[in-house]
Write a structure and sequence with these properties.
about 250 residues, Rossmann fold, four-stranded antiparallel sheet, 10 helices
Length: about 250
């Protein structure tokens, strides 16, 4: 029997003030899948990711990453995950090579291994001319590449991308799409959140929509496109009917 890349069962997260961010959420991601995770702002996407990666502790429920309990065996589960967050949570004065290398150190990689892996990622993401530049001097698109390279330094089996192309121009966005498709073809399981529905439709094979902390629709991408486009399916699933939106406009 194939072990899922991600298996979330009845996940609930209630914050100290009483806010229910995730409400009895269950979701499964198959190994090798390119999985789109959609939802409005505040729907629970980031909280779900935070629970998967140990940034937040679930109130109840279970999360397994390739069969490993993400709470009880946090360190082992976290080693299987590469996280590319929406925000640039780096030392902006650090050089590109340092940012990537330091993350390898966080995962306990030896210096020689980090160096070889960093050089490979610098080359793959065409960062060579910028490798010695401080992060703050890079364009938005180059910063996104650095954050993605950093997420891949320890060769994780699961790559989580939270709005990876936010603020990136069209040409660089398509470059990043190409990189992600190559990674997925190489066997990397990818979880992608994005507000660009075109991006989800272009890249993903499976889609889940979260609203109010609950999964309101999940399935193969083809099922979302049987009666229209992804935008119509998304608006309908989140309670904003397309016809209503058009009429209001």
């Amino acid at each position: 029997m194939t072990i899922p890349a991600v298996c979330i069962s009845h996940l609930t997260k209630v914050y100290r003030g009483g806010t229910v961010a995730v409400d009895d959420l269950s979701m499964t991601i198959a190994p090798g899948d390119f999985f789109g995770f959609l939802g409005p702002n505040g729907a629970g996407k980031s909280t779900t990711i935070h629970c998967m990666t140990g940034i937040a502790k679930p109130t109840s429920g279970k999360i397994e990453i390739f069969g490993i309990d993400a709470v009880k065996d946090y360190r082992e589960a976290r080693r299987l995950i590469g996280l590319s967050p929406q925000e640039f949570n780096v030392d902006t004065f650090a050089k590109v090579t340092q940012i990537i290398d330091w993350m390898g150190g966080y995962f306990g990689m030896r210096a020689a291994e980090r160096k070889a892996r960093t050089e490979m990622l610098i080359d793959r993401f065409e960062l060579g001319p910028h490798a010695k530049k401080p992060f703050r001097e890079l364009s938005g698109g180059l910063k996104r590449r650095v954050i993605l390279a950093r997420a891949l330094i320890h060769d994780p089996k699961l790559l989580i991308l939270d709005e990876p192309t936010a603020g990136v121009d069209v040409e660089l966005r398509r470059d990043l799409w190409r990189y992600l498709q190559e990674l997925n073809r190489d066997g990397k399981t990818i979880l992608l959140t994005s507000h660009y529905l075109e991006e989800i439709e272009r890249l993903c094979r499976t889609i889940a929509i979260i609203n109010g902390g609950k999964i309101v629709r999940e399935g193969p991408k083809a099922e979302f496109l049987t009666t229209g486009d992804l935008e119509e399916a998304y608006l309908s699933a989140t309670g904003a009917e397309p016809d209503h939106i058009a009429g209001a406009a």
